[in-house]
């Protein structure tokens, strides 16, 4: 599929990143009211990663996500209204209000699901990739995971299997510097997660996760290689999350003003806007129009989610694999 960054594609990229940011900022604000059930883990600050990678995919390509999965879902085309309803625990949600934030899935969009199991996406995505290979398609599968999951045996086993079977898989390590509250400099034995790629016989690539254009280029090369039968790649995207590991996390483990300084110097939306307006590819009015439209979309998604019905007792045993 075409990945040239035309004006239309740049507008699409900005809309996706802005939608993720507004979606997460709104959940951050609304969660504090106590109305949203369960836990949420927000993706704000990491938008360039999901957007730059998933823009290369079609519905027929699959992704597996993490507990911090809202950004991946939005970038893969999962309906924002349904996602918001799911997070609010409503029957109109993507999983009919039964999964919540950490279990949003939409197979029609190629989204195999967010996952509460750290590193759980690796084996799932290898299964999808094996099916693609056996059907002789040129589709690819993407496994997103964090720096904490990079130490999980499931990820090592999946990377080994992907090379042994020469699967069309891209392993994306979104290294935001912290596995919950533990710095990756303490918990990861090597300086770069991508350095581990050589142990599994695949290329390892490091990219600046604050730079949409760098992510888009690196992902494009790895995905094109996989589509042609070149096998898996480990892509390490170095970035930062703006909110805590979970909502309510006081982030005492972070340096004073760490997040504020990152936002001021590296924010992916700000840098994207500066680059495309300076080059004349997009105008400030183009971006302002998208900001307004996205804001209205998020407002409407919350309004609907608040008024939509909750699942009933009769819904409890529906949509399960086995009836007892």
Describe it for me?
It contains eleven helices and seven strands. With 324 residues, it is α/β, with parallel strands linked by helices. The protein has one domain: Rossmann fold (3-Layer(aba) Sandwich). The strands form two sheets. The protein has a five-stranded parallel β-sheet with strand order 1-2-3-7-6, sandwiched between helices. A two-stranded antiparallel ribbon has the order 4-5. The longest helix has 25 residues. It is globular, with a radius of gyration of 19 Å. The relative contact order is 0.16. The mean pLDDT is 95.
Could you give a short description of this structure?
With 324 residues, this protein is of the alpha/beta class.
How many strands, which pairing sense, and closed or not: the largest β-sheet? 5 strands, parallel
| Count of DSSP strands | 7
Structural class of the helices, strands and pairings? alpha/beta
Number of helices: 11
* Cα-based radius of gyration, to the nearest Å: 19 Å
What is the overall pLDDT average? Answer: 95
CATH architecture: 3-Layer(aba) Sandwich
Parts with pLDDT < 50 across at least 5 consecutive residues: none
Instruction: Give helix % range.
Output: 40-55%
What's the level 1 CATH class?
Alpha Beta
Q: Predict the CATH topology.
A: Rossmann fold
Spatial shape: globular
Strand order of the largest sheet: 1-2-3-7-6
How many separate domains? 1
Could you tell me the strand content as a percent range?
Answer: 5-15%
């Amino acid at each position: 599929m075409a990945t040239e960054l035309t004006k239309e594609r740049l507008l699409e990229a900005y809309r996706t990143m802005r939608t993720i940011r507004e979606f997460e900022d709104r959940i951050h604000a609304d969660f504090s009211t106590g109305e949203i059930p369960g836990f949420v883990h927000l993706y704000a600050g990491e938008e360039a990663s999901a957007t730059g990678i998933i823009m290369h995919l079609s519905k027929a390509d699959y992704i597996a996500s993490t507990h911090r999965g809202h950004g991946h879902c939005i970038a893969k085309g999962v309906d924002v209204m349904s996602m918001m309803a799911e997070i609010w625990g409503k029957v109109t949600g993507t999983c009919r209000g039964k999964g919540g934030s950490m279990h949003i899935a939409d197979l029609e969009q190629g989204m195999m699901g967010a996952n509460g199991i750290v590193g759980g996406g690796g084996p799932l995505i290898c299964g999808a990739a094996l099916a693609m290979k056996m059907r002789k398609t040129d589709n690819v599968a993407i496994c997103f995971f964090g720096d904490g999951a990079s130490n999980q045996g499931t990820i090592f086993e999946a990377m080994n299997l992907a090379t042994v079977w020469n699967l069309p898989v891209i392993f994306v390590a979104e290294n935001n510097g912290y596995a919950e509250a533990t710095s990756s400099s303490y918990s990861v034995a090597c300086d770069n997660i991508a350095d581990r790629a050589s142990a599994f016989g695949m290329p390892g690539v490091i990219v600046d996760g604050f730079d949409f254009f760098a992510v888009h280029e690196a992902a494009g090369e790895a995905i094109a290689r996989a589509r042609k039968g070149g096998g898996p790649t480990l892509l390490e995207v170095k970035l930062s999350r703006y909110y805590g590991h979970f909502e309510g996390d006081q982030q005492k483990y972070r340096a004073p003003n760490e997040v504020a300084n990152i936002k001021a110097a590296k924010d992916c939306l700000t840098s994207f806007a500066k680059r495309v307006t300076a080059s004349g590819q997009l105008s400030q009015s183009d971006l302002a129009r998208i900001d307004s439209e996205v804001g209205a979309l998020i407002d409407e998604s919350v309004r609907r989610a608040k008024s939509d019905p909750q699942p009933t007792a009769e819904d409890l045993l529906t949509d399960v694999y086995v009836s007892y």
